[in-house]
Amino acid sequence: MYNPKSSNAEEFICHEEILDTLHYAEQNSKNAALIDQIIEKAKLRKGLSHREASVLLACELEDRNQEVYHLAEQIKKDFYGNRIVMFAPLYLSNYCVNGCVYCPYHRQNSHIARKKLTQDEIRKEVIALQDMGHKRLALEAGEDPQMNPIEYILESIETIYSIKHKNGAIRRVNLNIAATTVENYRKLKEAGIGTYILFQETYHKESYETLHPTGPKHNYNYHTEAMDRAMEGGIDDVGLGVLFGLELYRYEFAGLLMHAEHLEAAFGVGPHTISVPRLRRADDIDPNAFDNGIDDDTFAKIVACIRVAVPYTGMIVSTRESQKCRERVLHLGISQISGGSRTSVGGYVEEEPEEENSAQFDVSDTRTLDQVVHWLMTMGYIPSFCTACYREGRTGDRFMSLCKNGQILNCCHPNALMTLKEYLEDYAAPDTRRIGEALIARELEAIPNPKVKSIAAQNLKDIATGSRDFRF
Ligand code: SAM
C-alpha cells in the first residue's frame, strides 16, 4: 500500500507505514548499535529515510542525542554557512470559509474583525515593509473563493512587485494560500511567486478531518496532494510544514519526511523549505485546549532531526517562537526567520486597537526587524536579504545542485553580504550599522574564489555610493 511515487495521498502518506515506523522507532529507542549506524549515515550528508530519522527522534540515549545536535549544527554550517535569510509575512485578507478549529479565521468566528486589503492598502503596507528593510515577503490569506479569488491574489502580487519606494523593493514574494488547482498554480508561477507554502497542519487523516470539520479544506486528499498539483503547474519551490500541537509530534515528523520523500520520488526535487510552526494563542483559540503541545526541548530535537534528515531543505521559524527559543534552534538548523512581523491585516501601517483584532495568532518575538538583525549579528550570523536564486532561475533541483556542489560560499555568501550592506546603508540604526560593517569586512575574507571576492568587494563599495541590487 505504501508507495512514495504514488499520486494518491493515502499511498505516499501511508497511515500503516507511519504506525510501523513509530513502533520500530520506539523499539529501537535505546538500540545503541542501530542509532550509531544511523548517525554514521547522517554524517554522509545525504539525508535519512523517515524510518531512520524517526529512530533518532525517539532516541533515549542522551550521549547519542548530543551527537545528533552537534551533527545538525555542523550540517547547517556546511550547507548554509552562518547566513540567515530574513522575511516578513503580509496578511492580505482574513476572510475564510473554512472551519479549522485551531485558527481564529474560522467561519464561525463572528467577533474577529474581518479585513481585506485593497490594492491601495497593499501599497501602503508594502511601503511600510520596504521602509523596515524587507525584500522578501510571505503572502498570507484565508480561503474564500468569493472574497479572495485567485484574481485578487494575482493582482496583489503584481502590485507588490511594482512598488519601488526610495531604495526599497520586494524582490521575492512567497505565497501561503489554500490548496488550489493546477491551472491556478500555473497562473501563480507566471505571476512570479517564489516558494508556494502550504502547511499540512496534520498528516493524520482522521484528526485532519476532525480539525477541519467544514469548508473546502476538509478534503484531506485534495489538501495533501496540493504540492503535486503545484509541481504540475510549474512551481518547483514548495514549502512544507505541520502545525505542531494538533497531533502526536512523532506521527507528524514521519509524515513530513514521507511527504519530502514523495516529492523527491515523484518529481526529482524535495521541498525547498520546511516550516515548524507551533500552535499559539489567538482570538478565540486557547492552545491549552489541544492535547499535543510540545515543549521547547522536544521542539529543538525535532529541528535537529529534520536538519540531519533533509540537509538540502531550508528550515523556517517564525515569530510564533520567542527570542530564546529562536536562538536555540538557529544553531540546530534554521536557515530562515521572520522579523518585525504583524499577523493582522493591515498591521504594518498602523497597530490595531484591541477591539478591532484581525490577527491570526499572538507573536512571541515582538522585536523590530532592526533589533532582530542586530541580535543575529552579535551571535555571528549574517542576516541575508538575498533573493538571487529565484531571480536567476535557480529554483527546484537547480538550487539543490548549488547546495550539493558546495557553491554556497561563492554565491550565497557574497549575495548575503551585499544585501546586508544595502540594509545597513538604507535602514539600519547606527549601532546595527557599526557591527554590520565590521561583520561584512570579516566575512568578505571567507569567500574562497578570488575573482568572486574581488567583484563582491567592488560591489560593496558601489553600494556605499548608491548602487543597488547586485547578485551572483
Ligand atoms: N488559508 C491558508 C491555508 O489553508 O493553508 C493559509 C494559511 S494561514 C494564513 C497560515 C498558517 O497559520 C496555517 O496553515 C496554520 O498552520 C497557521 N495557524 C493557524 N492558526 C494558528 C494558531 N492559532 N497558531 C499558530 N499558527 C496558526
Give an overview of the whole structure:
There is one protein chain. α2 packs across α12 and α6 crosses α7 (150-162). This protein has two domains: 77-366, TIM Barrel (Alpha-Beta Barrel); 388-464. With 472 residues, the chain is α/β, with parallel strands linked by helices. Helices cover 48% and strands 9% of the residues. The chain has helices at 9-12, 15-27, 32-43, 50-58, 62-80, 119-132, 150-162, 182-190, 205-211, 220-224, 226-232, 249-267, 296-309, 323-332, 369-378, 388-391, 396-404, 408-426, 430-444, 450-464, and strands spanning 83-93, 136-141, 172-176, 193-197, 238-241, 273-275, 314-317, 336-338, 382-384. Strands 1-2-3-4-5-6-7-8 form an eight-stranded parallel β-barrel, surrounded by six helices. It is built from 20 helices and nine strands. It is globular. The protein starts with 8 loop residues before the first helix and ends in an 8-residue tail after the last helix. The model has no long low-confidence stretch (mean pLDDT 96). It binds S-adenosylmethionine (SAM).
Quick structural overview:
With 472 residues, the protein is an alpha/beta fold. Helices cover 48% and strands 9% of the residues.
List keywords for this structure.
single chain, 472 residues, 2 domains, eight-stranded parallel β-barrel, 20 helices, 48% helix
Architecture blueprint of SSEs:
Layout: H1 9-12, H2 15-27, H3 32-43, H4 50-58, H5 62-80, E1 83-93, H6 119-132, E2 136-141, H7 150-162, E3 172-176, H8 182-190, E4 193-197, H9 205-211, H10 220-224, H11 226-232, E5 238-241, H12 249-267, E6 273-275, H13 296-309, E7 314-317, H14 323-332, E8 336-338, H15 369-378, E9 382-384, H16 388-391, H17 396-404, H18 408-426, H19 430-444, H20 450-464
Helix pairs in contact: 2-4, 2-12, 3-5, 4-12, 4-13, 5-13, 6-7, 13-14, 15-19, 18-19, 18-20
The structure holds S-adenosylmethionine.
S-adenosylmethionine binds at residues 102-103, 140, 142-143, 176-178, 198-199, 201, 217, 243, 277, 279-280, 282, 285, 320, 360-361.
